[in-house]
# Entry
Amino acid sequence: MRVKRRATLTTLAVVALLAATVGTATAKKPNKPKPPSAVPIAVSMDAEPWWVHEDADRIRYTVTLENKTSAAIEDVYVEFTAAEVTDPLFDIGTIDANDSTAIEFERYVSQFSEEEKCDIGAECALSAYVVVSVVVDGEETVITQTEMSTPLMPDPPCNFVYERAEEPGGTWVIDVAAPVEVDDLCIWTLPVWGDAPTAGVWEITLSPIPSETRPKRPMSATVDVRDGVPGNWCTQWIGTSSRFGGTWRTEDPDIVGQVYLPGDENMPSLGDGMCLGGGQGGDYFAVGNPKSFYLRADGYVTVRWVSEVPGDPPTDN
# Structure
């Protein structure tokens, strides 16, 4: 049982205005009652990333509460529900007049039951709910609520099988055991080895597959890599193109290029796992899983770790 609190006259006045239209709430998943026509606190919810692709992705929810009145409101609580789990009531305390406050919650895609039923190529909604209440003399009264959903769009894994070796001087060589056929897009998950770096510069080799009907016809053969959010493109240097390759013919050599896959090195303007090439306007978007990247190509692909940091960028001279 929650300890009974002494409410201010301001809080009592706010709740009295709502008592005729709003019922009490429990600590269960909200049953979506009709919200009152006017509420003293506005609530909104946002989440990053805006969409997710695999069970290891983390969704970070931000709930913002705004006091729309000219007086402080006390004993404010937030109830957050997602993935069929309701967190303990979060005690906001007092929100000052015409002020706002924000709190954060998180879930992993693997916690949602919808993840198990969402096939590759499908789109499934991962929903979250927020209920805001105030407590006066031990009575909890719902004053507003909101909900949102994050699209889950599963992509197939690349399924690289890694080999590793340590050369003289402690230099690591990380390669794949065999080429993997990639059809448009796959999730490239880096190996996890505590004593060997896996973030850094990787070399990608693409062996295009000629058309069966017109094998001599020139074809487009390109490679690009991004992090979990379209718009965060992986480049080798800031400001350079994220795509390499071009027109390819059967007599041409394989397509080879390098990209820098970030880790937790805390580079300026980058969060964990954010690629160097930002989205439109140079904006960067938080990723769901900093250990996964998204490889787009058509053909047989091998990858090889090259170094922890990129070399000097190219110059015009």
About this structure: Residues 1-37 have pLDDT under 50 and may be disordered.
